[in-house]
């Protein structure tokens, strides 16, 4: 069925522009106005027809009486949020599977929506760390703007979340919450003790003595001479094991409690609070996980999800590195602890970990948060490799130029000497760079430097906007594979 607004769009715009794309799923009629997403020469606007206060709330260019085109700007996102509550983010709590779909360009959400909407998971569409914002030149508001417009475009009404990801500083947490983000992932890496596991027993005990006696007594009374039965897993602390975990995690625990009580607890709206203890030098043991969980929950922290550091390596953009049997054994314990305390287990750097997704789904039984980001950027680069080989070669050379600098932000094992010279291969070969682990990581971690080049940045957006359908298809297929293997597809 063709809407009245669609008829008006075709009637009023075809005489002015030829390259018009209408997004039928976006159409809605609210009170005295009709709205629909439309792209003219690959530039999207919200077409609005009607009258009244809701019509006047949108800024735009009048095309005819009662009909205007409104650009995708922040003020129009706010007007859209007031009119359509499904374009606002929400929290999902501890029992609904969620899928973090970081989007560094602000163009991937339609593909994410189409894939995740067929699953049992809810999408966390606005997901950016402060580091990613700095590298891409974006803001929390810009990220949420892009997502809200995409939700409107796709007519998606089943809810999405917004995650201020891997935040370490109070100012950044305040910024994200003030922008309406419904989830905070607190990065505790700078509060976690380093080098503790390399200390001798005597050295650990000497450090432990510096902790106030009343705190030591409370912890020893709570954890020693007791066996914790965690859903069939028996955990018993020795004195040395307790000392080690106090030295590693106690400062982080105090930080978590402080942040929660100062910023999260006072909020009058629903929110999700994730704890990240995965950005560390050592694997999270069952003793460490249990210690952190028990302490913060007993202090009144309402934890939605927790991300431990698993055995092996969860590097960016490639499959799991390590012994899968060892990973399974540890995963089972971490899943049991999370389930015992009633929060979701969170898997960070979850992109492309295809060899362990089935295990993750089996052990979490759907109580999980799976976080991805850079793989969506790689699908954008793959789209460019297919449709604009010249641009891909520019991107590739820029990535090679800045790889060493980018490694200061990310832990990767790529050896770029093993990546074929881009000047020696055919256009048809370019897509193969997206299947090789070395070149995937090369392209994955250098996005910030690539996007700093104004000419390349403009060409990237132009190419992806011109090839929107292919980019969406690639994302649907790629993210769909993640969801299927982890057991979240709703057939």
What best-fitting shape do the alpha-carbon axes yield? globular
Strand content of the residues, in percent?
15-25%
Strand order of the largest sheet: 6-7-8-9-12-13-14-15
* Percent helix: 40-55%
| Structural class designation | alpha/beta
Rounded mean pLDDT score: 96
Number of helices: 19
How many β-strand stretches? 15
Low-pLDDT segments: none
Radius of gyration: 24 Å
How far apart, in Å, are the first and last alpha carbons? 28 Å
How many strands, which pairing sense, and closed or not: the largest β-sheet? 8 strands, parallel, barrel
Describe this structure in words.
It is a single chain. With 491 residues, the chain is α/β, with parallel strands linked by helices. It has a domain at 4-78. It has 19 helices and 15 strands. It has helices at residues 4-13, 53-56, 74-83, 109-116, 130-136, 140-154, 170-178, 201-208, 213-223, 239-264, 286-298, 324-341, 357-364, 374-387, 389-406, 437-445, 447-451, 454-466, 468-485; strands spanning 20-30, 33-40, 43-50, 61-64, 67-71, 98-101, 122-129, 161-167, 183-187, 227-230, 233-236, 272-276, 305-307, 344-347, 368-372. The radius of gyration is 24 Å and the shape is globular. The two termini are 28 Å apart. The mean pLDDT is 96.
Summarize it.
Helices cover 46% and strands 17% of the residues. By secondary structure, it is α/β, with parallel strands linked by helices. It has a domain at 4-78.
Helix and strand topology:
Blueprint: H1 4-13, E1 20-30, E2 33-40, E3 43-50, H2 53-56, E4 61-64, E5 67-71, H3 74-83, E6 98-101, H4 109-116, E7 122-129, H5 130-136, H6 140-154, E8 161-167, H7 170-178, E9 183-187, H8 201-208, H9 213-223, E10 227-230, E11 233-236, H10 239-264, E12 272-276, H11 286-298, E13 305-307, H12 324-341, E14 344-347, H13 357-364, E15 368-372, H14 374-387, H15 389-406, H16 437-445, H17 447-451, H18 454-466, H19 468-485
Parallel strand pairs: 6-7, 6-15, 7-8, 8-9, 9-12, 12-13, 13-14, 14-15
Antiparallel strand pairs: 1-2, 2-3, 3-5, 4-5, 10-11
Helix pairs in contact: 3-6, 4-6, 4-19, 8-10, 10-11, 11-12, 12-13, 14-15, 14-16, 14-19
